[in-house]
Each structure stands twice: as C-alpha cells, then as structure tokens.
Amino acid sequence: MKCMSMKPRYYMVRPAIFAPAILAVAAIVAAFRDSWWFLAALPFIYLGSICAQPNLNLVNGCLAYLAMLVGFATLAMFRPLGTAILVGAMSGFYVSALEKWIRMRPVPEAEPCAAPNSGPATQPGNSGTTQGPPSVS
C-alpha cells in the first residue's frame, strides 16, 4: 500500500558564518577609515545574524527588527551612532538570512511512510497483530 498523505518537509538551517565575519571586518575597516562610531555596529551585526532565518519571519527576527527601530530613533538624535546601529542590525539580519537560505538543505527522511506517533508504519498483511510476550494469567 502506497502512502498518499501530504507530509511536511523539514530543512536543516545551518548558522551564518561568513556573513557576520565579513560584515564585522567591514565595520572595523569603516571605523579606522571614517568614524570610530562604526564599532558600535559589531554587536548589532551579531544580533542580526543570530535572529536571521531564511524566511525572514517576524517571530525569530523580533530582536533584530527592534534593533532597527532603535537605530531609526537614535538616527534622529545622534546620527553617527544611529547609522552604526541601523546598518549593523539591517546588514547582519538580511545578509545572514541570505547566507542561511543558500546553505539550507532538506533533512533526509528516515522512513518513507511513518505512522503519526513516529513509530514504524503498519505492514499491509499484519493489520491488527502485534508482537510481544504472551500475556500471563
């Protein structure tokens, strides 16, 4: 008997490695070339990288989105720090999400038609019979 049910697909999402490293180096170079305030972007690059998911959902990215709002608010009061926070959070989040999307792979399935309780599927010729020790009276 062929399993005809629709099953969800599961994916292995690996953490972003290259995006936060490259962005951190870019922030450090910008700090030496332009303004030391760009060093304030480093924790926000890390925060954006941790919160990023390939589907850019709000649940996982809420801290990164909050950091972006803080960056916009700080931008109005103190431009160099607001720019560092906003650029760090946005670039860390979106570039890391892109890297995770590129590196994401489907999880191989262990059994082609598993039962809902994750146990072995019932064999077609064995419906209703179970194996185990005989009952003792």
Topology of helices and strands:
Layout: E1 11-12, H1 18-33, H2 41-51, H3 62-77, H4 79-103, E2 105-106
Antiparallel strand pairs: 1-2
Could you explain how this protein is built, in words?
The chain is mostly helical and 137 residues long. It has a domain at 15-106. The protein is built from four helices and two strands; from the N terminus they run E-H-H-H-H-E. The protein has helices at 18-33, 41-51, 62-77, 79-103; strands at residues 11-12, 105-106. A two-stranded antiparallel sheet has the order 1-2. Helix 1 (18-33) runs antiparallel to helix 2, helix 1 runs antiparallel to helix 4 (79-103) and helix 2 packs parallel to helix 4 (79-103). The chain is elongated and about 65 Å long.
Attribute tags:
mainly alpha
**Which class of secondary structure composition applies to the elements?**
mainly alpha
Please give the number of β-strands. Answer: 2
Tally of separate helices: 4
Rg on CA atoms, Å: 25 Å
Low-confidence stretches: none
- Terminal Cα span: 37 Å
Strand content: under 5%
Main sheet: strands, sense, barrel? 2 strands, antiparallel
Order of helices and strands: EHHHHE
Kindly report the average pLDDT value: 83
- Report helical residue fraction: 40-55%
Strand order of the largest sheet: 1-2
Label the overall shape: elongated
